[in-house]
């Protein structure tokens, strides 16, 4: 996955653009940054903060879940259902947060 987090909001997966909504792009960028560095979980609070930065509104746990669902769907739609694991490359633990399960070497942050 490649993401550009400053001037433009484009995420590429296997060389093609992912259909990621503006409100979800910041969450994808945070997940990708964590996966590239430590591979750990991003807290629900940090995901909610990324959503708030994009929308200007506070978010709740349901909105965090919906965001993760939309990101998983974007991966599935791009690669095809047989090429993407059931979790859509995003492991979710409701009380902890989420993490991108792609290997660090598959992530390029530009």
Explain what this protein looks like in three dimensions.
With 110 residues, this protein is α+β, with helices and mostly antiparallel strands. Helices cover 43% and strands 17% of the residues. It is built from three helices and seven strands. It has helices at residues 22-37, 44-55, 61-79, and strands at 2-3, 11-13, 16-17, 42-43, 90-93, 97-100, 108-109. The strands form two sheets. Strands 3-2-1-7 form a four-stranded mixed β-sheet, covered by helices on one side. Strand 5 and strand 6 (97-100) form a beta hairpin. Helix 1 runs antiparallel to helix 2, helix 1 crosses helix 3 (61-79) and helix 2 packs across helix 3 (61-79). The longest helix has 19 residues, at 61-79. The radius of gyration is 13 Å and the shape is globular. The chain starts with a strand and ends with a strand. The model has no long low-confidence stretch (mean pLDDT 86).
Strand order of the largest sheet: 3-2-1-7
Computed Rg: 13 Å
What general outline do the C-alpha atoms trace?
globular
Q: How many helices in DSSP terms?
A: 3
What is shown here, in short?
The chain has 110 residues and is of the alpha+beta class.
Can you give keywords for this protein?
110 residues; alpha+beta; 4-stranded mixed beta sheet; 3-stranded antiparallel beta sheet; 3 helices; 43% helix; 17% strand; globular
Layout: helices, strands, pairs:
Layout: E1 2-3, E2 11-13, E3 16-17, H1 22-37, E4 42-43, H2 44-55, H3 61-79, E5 90-93, E6 97-100, E7 108-109
Parallel strand pairs: 1-7
Antiparallel strand pairs: 1-2, 2-3, 4-6, 5-6
Helix pairs in contact: 1-2, 1-3, 2-3
């Amino acid at each position: 996955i490649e993401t550009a987090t400053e001037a433009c909001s484009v995420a590429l997966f296997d060389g093609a653009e992912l259909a990621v909504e503006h409100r979800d792009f910041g969450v994808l960028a945070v997940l990708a940054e964590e996966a590239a560095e430590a591979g750990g979980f991003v807290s629900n609070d940090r995901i909610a903060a990324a959503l708030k930065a994009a929308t200007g509104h506070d978010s709740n746990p349901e909105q965090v879940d919906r965001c993760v669902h939309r990101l998983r769907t974007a991966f599935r739609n791009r690669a095809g259902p047989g090429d993407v694991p059931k979790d859509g490359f995003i492991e979710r633990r409701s009380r902890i947060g989420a993490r991108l399960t792609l290997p660090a070497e598959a992530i390029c942050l530009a």
